Amino acid sequence: MNKAVLVNANIVVLASSFNPSIISKDWMTSNGLVEEPISNFVHTPVFSLVENKDFQLAVDQDRLQLSAKKPVLRNMNLMAGTIKKFFSTLPETPYSSMGFNFAYRIPVKIHFLEKIVSQKEQTIKELFSANYGLGVIVLFKFRSFVVRVNVSPPIPGNEFQTVNFNFHSSIRNGKEGKRKSDLYRATLERAERILKNE
To answer: Are strands 63-68 and 5-15 parallel, antiparallel or unpaired?
Structure first.
């Protein structure tokens, strides 16, 4: 395998006070938030968890997290739509921010950092050790998001390393959250262009 593979994807929405107790099976179904049957469900006053074959939705008083169980194209396309429906269903919730998170596994033999960091190998060896791994954290703006890219150093003997992308943006209300949800596909495509060194 000589390319990056998406291994995890989730959307996180923060608010000053979610009400997890309203997240019930019936509420999820009647509001069109799930297409597939619910397979696992936990419902308490302070935490709710809903799972089906495609997604896991966890909600506590400060945070909602929608995670794809398998980050395949169909699920990726459904995630932003599901979050938009959530914003439409609960427009009065005092939202504060949202983040799109993507984790990729790349083969160590892809020298991803060579374009980012000009390595002075001898200096690094002198400072640390002849057996070193180089990682990097990069922050930049993309549209209305602040993006944090964390490239883990390769572990000696391991064939892969991890590249995590977090696209973070402040939101003030459900309407703004819906509008920024429309950028989900663009953020995923931006992450993939970076991994292809484009």
So the answer is: antiparallel
Cα angle for residues 135, 141, 146 (degrees, 5° grid): 75
In this prediction the pTM is 0.89
Phi, psi of 21 (to 5 degrees): -70, -15
Pairing between strand 5-15 and 40-43?
unpaired
What lies within 8 Å, CB to CB, of 22 at 6+ separation is none
Look up residue 66 and give its two tokens: 């929608």
Rounded Cα distance, 95 and 91, in Å = 9
Sheet of strand 40-43: strand arrangement: 40-43, 47-51, 55-60, 63-68, 5-15, 95-107, 160-170, 145-151, 136-142
Q: Which two tokens stand for residue 68?
A: 């794809």
Encode 134-160: b = buried (16+ Cβ within 10 Å), e = exposed: beeeeeeebeebebbbebbebeeeeeb
- CA dist., res. 31 & res. 24, Å (int): 11
Report pLDDT digits (tens) over 30-88. 998 888 888 999 988 899 999 999 999 999 999 999 999 999 888 988 898 999 999 99
- CA torsion sign for 25, 27, 30, 34 is negative
158: closest CA among 92, 81, 106?
106
Q: Which of helix, strand or coil describes residue 39?
A: coil
